[in-house]
Amino acid sequence: MRICGVFLLLLSLPALQSCSTTSTVSQLYEMADRREVDAELWQAAVQSDDNEQRTTALRLLGRIGGDPVVDLLLPSLQHERPEIRLEAAFALGISGSVNAIAPLHARLAEESNAEVASAIWLALANLAAPRLQSQLVDAWDHEPEQQQTLAQAAAFLWAYHRDKLQQLDRGLVNRLMQAARSDNVALASNSAAALARVRKESGAFRRHILIDTLKNAPVERSRQLLLKVLGANSDAVGDAFLRDILAGKAYRDTPPSDAERAEAAAALVARLDDKALTTFIQAMKDEPSWSVRALAFQSLSAEQVERLRAELQAHIEAVPADRAVLMPILQPIEFRDETEEPAKATADYHDVRKASGTQIRLSTNRGDIDIELLPQAPYTAANFLELVGKGYYNGTVFHRVIPNFVAQGGDPSGRGDGGPGYRIREELSRLPHERGYIGMATAGKDTAGSQFFFNTERNPHLDWHYTVFAKVMRGEDIMMALQQGDTIVSAKVLDKR
């Protein structure tokens, strides 16, 4: 029995209230992890005067999701306190229920708090609200302070709901293209990220505008993403521009970075015929940057791989360091259906929450990366800590490293389809997928297990969709140097912060 039960009569009133809140919050976390909706208990929690209890209940209801939770969430969307409305908007946005769309629109029309309004825009995009593209355009012109959020909303909409849209709004594309050359890092990056989601849309982009934007975009992350767009909309002039970048020729005040050269190489791959591609692959033997070689090979289509199998095999012989990148391409596997694995039993939240704040050292063949487990995802953090304690990650490899995106590991099979034999539930939050933040890899809702990924760049389209459970505290340079096939030699717990 916990202290709340043992010393109940000895506690002062404030202590009793704190004890009661702790007990209720624990119960809420455990029910949310089991995906249970006890309407009476949740109703009391979302109406509580205790701020922690109420905001926690809102966030957890959103994680459960579905139509039944919407009625429990909606009253808090009208609460006088903005932090309550913020959590309600986020929860409705991840609920997956279209029943939340109309109330969110109604609230947006009268919302005066900028942070809450931002959450509502993202929620509407996440739910694929009808006619949202034109509404984003209108807001872009009348609410310039929201443009950073509006760009991310476009990224959400186009990344996850393109199939629900009849066509792209060209006005929105044009505004995002202009914003991609902004010196505001978040605005430029979010805008380019949205454009990259629809880079293959026929007729949506013009090569000369893309090149002009690239030459005038001061934010490198924006340029990286715009190079993806150019690759899908290039011509002879665009190809020459991409070759110059790959060759390291300056198209701005300074030479292109290896990250930009990697994107140029990837863009060119789809543009070359087999003869030119054979020459290109042969030239990769002399390319000093692993990221350039890796992203180029990862961009090959299945048809190109089949036709050029001999050349790729020859490259492995010449550059053994690229074996880990090329073998999964040459011998693709059929992934298991992770939804068939049993859900991990829900642990006592009183024990689970102790994992938060724990620091873990991942010793790789390139050096040490120290990470800290975060309180926003307690069950995920506890699961990771448990696996570390079992030595589960020792000797595992980073089986999927995509330059300018993520470095993914945690699969004992080393192929990308392995795990601990069970699945854990998502714990989505408003934590960003910034460089150095660590997310859980999934194959759909509530299918995480042991695989995780480092965000090696800002990835705004992943926000609200993948559990962020840790962040890098030391060793970011090691994280950025990771290559596919690198090994976690050992994972061990350090002192708790």
From TrEMBL:
Which Gene Ontology biological process is one annotated for this entry?
A: protein folding
Query: What organism does the record attribute this protein to?
Result: Permianibacter aggregans
CDD domains of this UniProt entry? cyclophilin
Q: Where is the signal peptide?
A: 1-17
The name under which this protein is listed is peptidylprolyl isomerase
Q: Which family does it belong to?
A: Belongs to the cyclophilin-type PPIase family.
What is the uppermost EC class here?
isomerase
The record's Pfam families line, in alphabetical order, gives: HEAT_2 (PF13646), Pro_isomerase (PF00160)
Enzyme Commission number? 5.2.1.8
Q: Which InterPro entries did the record assign?
A: ARM-like, ARM-type_fold, Cyclophilin-like_dom_sf, Cyclophilin-type_PPIase_CS, Cyclophilin-type_PPIase_dom, Cyclophilin_A-like, PBS_lyase_HEAT
Q: What keywords are assigned to this protein?
A: Isomerase, Rotamase, Signal
* Residues annotated as domain PPIase cyclophilin-type: 367-497
The molecular function terms in GO held by this entry are:
peptidyl-prolyl cis-trans isomerase activity
Q: Does the keyword Signal apply?
A: yes
Q: Does the keyword Signal apply?
A: yes
